[in-house]
Amino acid sequence: MPAVLWKEDMSRLAQFNWLGVIDYIPALLQGLYYTLLVSVIGLIIGFVLGAVFGLGRISRSKIVYGISTAYIELLRGTPVLVQAIWIYFALPLIIGFNIPSLTAGIIVIGLNSGAYIAEIVRGAVQSVEKGQMEAGRSLGLSQHLTMRYVIWPQAFKRMIPPLGNQFIISIKDTSLLSVILVPELIFQGRLVASNHFNAVEIYTTVAVFYLVITLTLSKVLNVMEKRLTH
Amino acid sequence: MIIHVADLHKSFGDNEVLSGIDCDVEPQEVVCVIGPSGSGKSTFLRCLNMLEEITSGEVVIDGKSLTDRQTNINEVRTEIGMVFQQFNLFPHMSVLENISLAPLKVRSLSAEAVRDRASKLLDKVGLGDKADAYPAQLSGGQQQRVAIARALAMEPKMMLFDEPTSALDPELVGEVLAVMKQLAEEGMTMVVVTHEMGFASEVADRVLFMDGGVIVEEGTPEQIFKAPKSERTKSFLNKVL
After folding, report:
1. b/e per residue B109-122 (b: at least 16 CB within 10 A)
2. Chain B: residue nearest A150 by CA?
3. ipTM of the prediction
4. Among residues A191, A215, A218, which one has the least CA distance to residue A202?
5. Quick check: B88 and A150 CB within 8 A?
6. Per residue in A44-81, pLDDT tens?
7. pTM (whole model) above 0.80
8. Which of A83, A102, A111, B191 is the most buried (most CB within 10 A)?
9. Closest-CA residue to A166 (of A46, A59, A74, A84)
10. In terms of Cα–Cα distance, which of A222, A193, A144, A210 is closest to A16?
11. For position A134, what pLDDT does the model report?
């Protein structure tokens, strides 16, 4: 009787102390604050890096192309966790001073998302028809002006769906920063859960927090995309 | 002369598309370029404003050599309007914005002066009521007329047309040709790559027949259409007329 089993299984979940989570909401909200902080600043950095290196991938200069490709391949091809450990533990040995964990976390998210965003930018810019650049140039607009007023606005609109995807992935990647002691959602959740033995309740609540962030982001991007459509 | 072309060669890799073009165009002259597809006529036109890099030879526009490193190509291009087969309007901008962009950013005119100029040009191409429309809301013929207005907004000394009616439904060809004809009558210098033999014979001062990357024959429309000398011209005209 699958239906009965399902009901019994579900009722077993009731033995968890869901109401008890309320006591730890303030701690989780603090984690949420850091998750949002790292995500927002990290993704702003990632977008700037993505724009620069994405355009670098289309550059006619072999050096610019090479540097951009190396950056993208290195950051896409290695785990975020390792990147975090490198920047927090290994980089200070090279540069001679410590990096606060929050700063390190922001750098990791920025660098990592930048590599993916660069490919999104490249793809979107290259998807704009060749005739658009030619039309701009034939009017006497420089390469730069044509890029800015003709190509970029069209490319930007096409970037929004894949950017949304990347933003969501990067927001969830911030959970890996708990290993370098960034006090984000997972870090706070683990702290509470290991002291109070309520892992299921706490991590489920943490998941709901992530879901709220990502659903809000999806909604905002949807509205943005519609606004840019003529 | 306003356009001077001497021994122009253009290759894409090993493939030579233009094999030595010599051609001069006088101010206010209307030159139509005809020929089979793949003959290099579009490439020739695109070399005139450096949308294609010139492999060798010389193109001089209004006294400025395009192959000279001192020449600012953006400046030269402001004197050459170009109309494309696929219109290439900016889809994210209204008709008015399409027309205004270059005058605002390159000529640095005031917004008011540009709006004034744009609305005059739209009236001229018969689209005075479409300033706020977006390209996707217009028919092909209307889009191409906007594209002509956009090119004219820079007040160029000459206009290049790259098969301007080839992407249009047959019933829309006339409205675009009418605008071009009016432009020719006003004394605009024009180089037109076209398959519209009727337009070429009616409006052109001179017709160039291109095949295999060279100008095979040139002359007045009368000479080319009524009494072609070359066998290749004859056989081409037999197929299209």
Report:
1. beeeebbebbeebb
2. B90
3. 0.94
4. A191
5. no
6. 999 999 999 999 999 999 999 999 999 999 999 999 99
7. yes
8. B191
9. A46
10. A193
11. 98
